[in-house]
Amino acid sequence: MIVAGETRSAYFLQEEEKRIETHTLSVLVDNEPGVLARVVGLFSGRGYNIESLTVSEVEHEKHLSRITIVTAATLQVLEQIKNQIARLVPVHRVIDLTHIGDAIERELALVKVAGKGDHRVEALRLAQAFEAKTVDATLESFVFELTGTPSDIDRFVKLMTSCGLVEVARTGLAALSRGKDGL
Amino acid sequence: MTRQMTGAEMVLQALHDQGVDTIFGYPGGAVLPIYDEIFQQDRIRHILVRHEQGAGHAAEGYARSTGKCGVALVTSGPGATNMVTALTDALMDSIPMVCITGQVPTHLIGTDGFQECDTVGITRPCTKHNWLVKNIEDLPRVLHEAFRIATSGRPGPVVVDIPKNIQFQTGTYYGPKSSTKSPGYRTSAYQPQLKGDEAAIRDAVALIAAAKKPVLYTGGGVINAGPAGSRLLRELVKLTGLPITSTLMGLGAYPASGPNWLGMLGMHGTYEANLAMHDCDVMVCIGARFDDRITGRTDAFSPTSKKIHIDIDPSSINKNIRVDIPIVGDVAYVLEDMLKVWKQTQPTQDKAALNAWWQQIAVWRAKKSLGYRRSKDVIMPQYAVERLYQMTKHRETYITTEVGQHQMWAAQHFGFEEPNRWMTSGGLGTMGYGLPAAIGVQAAHLDALVCCIAGDASVLMNMQEMSTAVQHELPVKIFILNNQYMGMVRQWQQLLHGNRLSHSYTEALPDFVKLADAYGCHGIRCEKPDALDDAIAEMIEVKKPVLFDCRVANLANCFPMIPSGKAHNEMLLDEDATDDAIGSAISAEGKMLV
Ligand SMILES: Cc1ncc(C[n+]2csc(CCOP(=O)(O)OP(=O)(O)O)c2C)c(N)n1
Fold this sequence. Notes:
The structure holds two protein chains of two kinds. Chain A is α+β, with helices and mostly antiparallel strands.
């Protein structure tokens, strides 16, 4: 039971929450015109960060899309972000996958490298080590396809910079919670 | 009910089916088919304004004074962009409003057509939701959904953008009940929660019962919960004996004459209200949102209290101030359940502690923080509001305001006894709100006294609407506290900027009495305190719209005031507002704040 005057206001208990954390939010929305603009506009309008954003229709009959957003904020602001997204009319659910813990997170990258001789051999060897697929090859270039966690991809791309990296395209994060339950 | 009709007919039919009797609007190319339908019917009264912003604020005034949804109709392009301020205003103050905008025909969208603008793009951040209707089959469903979204949960404005070719097309109309059978209907994700969590309500009751220094802090959410909200709030106050204060938006939910009333709180709130907030041990926030005008410095806000927060919008909770017991739900539902629990459990309160608390409050009250220096020679603005109140309180009176000092003096010195009688722009602070809002209120309450307490600067922002009032025989009384200055700006310049009055003096004010004449309404000027009562009586008697030029003391300041960046217990009162105190009232850091 709560007794009046027992502790100070909860406001003062929040000091440690100044720490910035990176969280992955999964948002189920009606796939209707403007829905992505609503979510993105909310982030820019209220000064929240978007580090990665992925969106695609996931259930055609029900017109549902899933938006996966990676954002960095204090825990208090993260709670606000969740509440603000949930308030949008076409939003069905929002969950904080990082808060639930141990979510599966994957990203796909296409990585183009160009070069000759040793660079070429080294690029191919590294690609094999990362289990990247070669999806295009010419006498002077490769395009590799790699799926993994964002940090796997970061490492791969970093290594490729010394093997003639030309450009990179990344999909942004797709994420799901583990276990039998869905959003 | 399903029937074949054109899109324009559907608009009128849907408005009728939603119980709309009055709309505010302005025609133009992209809404001509709808105007043609308006011409051919007489179920819905159309009030022609002079500027689309006026239509928006009039719809807000109509909504706030009736509890119903306000409706505005404007054309594409400039018609829609002129609505943006009113939409934002309604969003900030949670006012239900449906705004229908015309749009260029679908095949011209995206071509920079004449009077094309991205209405849904522009209004997305200033509406609760909006739609561009590209297919006639979607129109009836969207229209009904627009009313549902605007009026349910935390109310707000919505926009339905209808291209002109859709207004001409024929399709099947579905009524509000049968609209679930219309093509494309899907159950909406938006289903606001009305009932509060039972366990949280029990905890809240226990916390209130055990409190030694409790305070109720209420807001516009109580008014939005309908008549039941205010009734249940009054019952709660009676049952618990708690002192009660309210935000600007919540005035009237509890009567100003009630024994437990502390007056308004916040930046220009009373001493007793703000100190009770600062020193309390249990704060019960009901339908308010811990806005910065209320909290002052957040890290010094009510440092020793446990906080209960009742709000229908989950995103309001823990946004600015962390609370101990959040309860998401409609104020009326939650209060009803709280009262039930209180009556069941019959908790014993600490009478001795509560007595001591009331004694402390009496000491604060004795400061008479709303006091001001009276004068025989000039009309003090506070005196003008007081007299207006005394001379209108026995009538059905509705007050709207513009924005500035006069707004705060109205809130401080006019006693509001009932909900829905007070219309003011709180969240956005929109100069130009009050006059058109009064027109909207009068349109809903033809026989009532509707008075806009205005400033000389604000009133000019939508002055053109006097012409609307005259045309539609809406006898609004515009009571201008004319101090020749943008008073609130001048006050801040005095407090923060070494009294350098940069562009806050309105050099070439119009002669308001002649202006009244030009509009075909009635003009009154009053310059002396002893002539005021007669002049007010004349204003009330005249059956026309009135522009009342009340000449007040030019340099009066609005006190009490919590300077920006200060805490509740650091407020400035009229008596200690010496030049020195004023000069050092605001720290360098405070000057950064608005
Ligand atoms: C549309 C708009 N522009 C600017 C402001 C900033 N502002 C706030 S109060 C004020 C002065 C209002 O002067 P007046 O209407 O004469 O009222 P007074 O303060 O003198 O009572 C101004 C310019 C505002 N609130 N709204």
